[in-house]
């Protein structure tokens, strides 16, 4: 399921994500092409950075609340440890029934 | 108080008197909701802040903010601590582990001795046996039959006292509408676990479990006083140089000083950059970092927005798909990244194909339209994965 979705997403992103580089080079005068490329790269990295920062914030907060709900006896620091480190020792002690 | 009460140690949990009252939460069961209706009304009027309420069974870790006060009313109508079940123990432990002050209302009325099964001594003894850490406690007992007016007003008086006073463990009894105070003498070993958690006494922990620690010395020259102090991330203070904006709301609160300062600084720096770039200060029109001329062209502005969005939609899956396989699906890091390959391979292939396609046919709009439609349909579908 995930493979299917991510593959389709890959096609979608791939089709539209590098095209602006070619288009803006066609739009501007040849002597400022390098400025145009910088402009577009700046936008791409900005979008990625802000997007990942926001979604990570949402993810951490949601994960913390959900873990607190299923493991109410776990204190806040252990809880945050579970989210940040997959290999941490507390995570390994959890069984399927917990 | 005449009875010999097992004693709970005094903790130095003084609050800054200037600070506002911390969050107040009333824990209840269905039987006390009528009582709490009036109590909460009275409390919020007296203290001038909102008072939340929660039933004991739905109380969870996330609801209790650090340094808050809980008023527990469950002991008013039935002797909770002497008949505690395992599930209730978990809930009570939640309260005692996470709050700064616990105001424990009880229907015990130990002056009259009418209900000996309601009382703090039963509680503190059972807590100690069960290894529960106990925060500062205000214990407030009155008979169930006592007149109503005095009760609410007195509870409202108790809450600020618990938050401001230095000696925090008190026992109060209401008798003939007069509040009687019985100060409890601290007993050191009773509350060892809580004091260890608060780093007030030293303890042994495994190196594996230790957080960042600082080597400190109590008295210079006396090596016996050398010890490690755990550096706990302080949620309320500005941590020097240690702050990640992505942890906003988790490690640092959105309302905390460090988060606000970061946002303000980011805003100011952005405005300065905008001014510097607009008026070409200290640079030349050709060499400035952000070519503003392009924003005047409609196509360029749209391209800017489009590629920022496509950057987001590309990198968020790259970041979270491996995380999804690692955490809930328990894959190794290598396996998880392999599962990202279909996405990456198709992304790269389509980049090349779209480049060739545009070059050959000279149309660019179909690529944007088709790609964006596909992205908009598939991204929500990713949310449906369980």
Give structural notes.
The complex is a heterodimer of chains A (98) and B (386). With 98 residues, chain A is an all-alpha fold. Chain A has one domain (2-93). Chain A has 5 helices and no strands. Chain A has helices at 2-17, 19-27, 33-70, 76-84, 89-93. The longest helix of chain A has 38 residues, at 33-70. Chain A is elongated, with a radius of gyration of 21 Å. The relative contact order of chain A is 0.05. The mean pLDDT of chain A is 78. Chain B has 386 residues and is of the alpha/beta class. Among the domains of chain B are: 24-187, Rossmann fold; 291-383, no CATH class. Chain B has helices at 33-47, 86-98, 120-130, 148-164, 192-197, 257-278, 298-326, 333-338, 341-361, 365-383, and strands at 24-28, 51-55, 69-75, 101-106, 136-141, 170-175, 178-183, 213-217, 226-230. Chain B has a 7-stranded mixed β-sheet, covered by helices on one side. In chain B, helix 1 (33-47) crosses helix 4. Chain B is elongated. Residues 1-19, 128-133 and 234-246 of chain B have low confidence and may be disordered. Chains A and B meet through helix 1, helix 2, helix 3 and helix 4 of A and helix 2, helix 7, helix 9 and helix 10 of B.
Helix-strand layout with pairing:
The complex is a heterodimer of chains A (98) and B (386).
Chain A lengths: L1 H16 L1 H9 L5 H38 L5 H9 L4 H5 L5
Chain B lengths: L23 E5 L4 H15 L3 E5 L13 E7 L10 H13 L2 E6 L13 H11 L5 E6 L6 H17 L5 E6 L2 E6 L8 H6 L15 E5 L8 E5 L26 H22 L19 H29 L6 H6 L2 H21 L3 H19 L3
Parallel strand pairs in B: 1-2, 1-3, 3-4, 4-5, 5-6
Antiparallel strand pairs in B: 6-7, 8-9
Helix pairs in contact in B: 1-4
């Amino acid at each position: 399921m995930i493979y299917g979705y991510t593959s389709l997403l890959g096609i979608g992103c791939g089709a539209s994500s590098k095209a602006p580089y070619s288009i803006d080079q066609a739009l501007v005068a040849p002597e400022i092409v390098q400025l145009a490329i910088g402009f577009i790269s700046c936008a791409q990295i900005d979008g990625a950075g802000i997007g990942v920062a926001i979604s990570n914030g949402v993810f951490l907060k949601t994960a913390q609340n959900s873990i607190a709900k299923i493991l109410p006896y776990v204190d806040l620091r252990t809880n945050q440890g579970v989210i940040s480190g997959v290999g941490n020792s507390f995570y390994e002690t959890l069984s399927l029934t917990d | 108080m005449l009875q010999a009460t097992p004693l709970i140690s005094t903790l130095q949990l003084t609050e800054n008197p200037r600070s506002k009252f911390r969050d107040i939460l009333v824990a209840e069961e269905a039987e006390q909701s009528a009582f709490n209706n009036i109590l909460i009304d009275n409390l919020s009027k007296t203290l001038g802040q909102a008072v939340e309420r929660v039933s004991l069974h739905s109380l969870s870790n996330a609801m209790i903010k650090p340094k808050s006060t809980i008023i527990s009313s469950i002991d008013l109508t039935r002797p909770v601590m002497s008949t505690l079940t395992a599930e209730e123990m978990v809930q009570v432990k939640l309260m005692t582990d996470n709050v700064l002050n616990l105001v424990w209302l009880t229907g015990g009325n130990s002056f009259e001795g009418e209900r000996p099964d309601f009382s703090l001594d039963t509680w503190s003894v059972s807590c100690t046996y069960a290894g529960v850490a106990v925060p500062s406690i205000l214990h407030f007992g009155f008979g169930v039959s006592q007149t109503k007016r005095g009760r609410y007003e007195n509870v409202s008086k108790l809450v600020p006292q618990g938050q401001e006073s230095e000696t925090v463990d008190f026992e109060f009894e209401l008798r003939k509408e007069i509040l009687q105070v019985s100060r409890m003498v601290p007993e050191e070993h009773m509350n060892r676990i809580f004091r260890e958690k608060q780093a007030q006494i030293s303890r042994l922990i495994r190196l594996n479990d230790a957080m960042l620690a600082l080597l400190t010395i109590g008295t210079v020259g006396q090596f016996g006083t050398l010890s490690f102090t755990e550096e706990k991330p302080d949620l309320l203070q500005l941590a020097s140089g240690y702050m990640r904006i992505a942890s906003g709301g988790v490690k640092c609160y959105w309302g905390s000083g460090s988060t606000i300062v970061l946002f303000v600084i980011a805003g100011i720096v952005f405005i300065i950059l905008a001014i510097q770039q607009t008026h070409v200060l200290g640079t030349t029109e050709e060499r400035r970092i952000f070519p503003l001329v392009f924003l005047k062209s409609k196509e360029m502005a749209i391209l800017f927005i489009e590629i920022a969005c496509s950057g987001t939609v590309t990198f968020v899956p790259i970041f979270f798909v491996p995380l999804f396989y690692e955490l809930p699906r328990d894959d190794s890091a290598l396996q998880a990244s392999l599962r990202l390959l279909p996405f990456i391979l198709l992304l790269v292939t389509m980049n090349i194909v779209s480049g060739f396609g545009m070059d050959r046919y000279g149309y660019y709009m179909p690529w944007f339209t088709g790609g964006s439609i596909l992205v908009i349909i598939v991204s929500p579908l990713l949310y449906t994965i369980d």
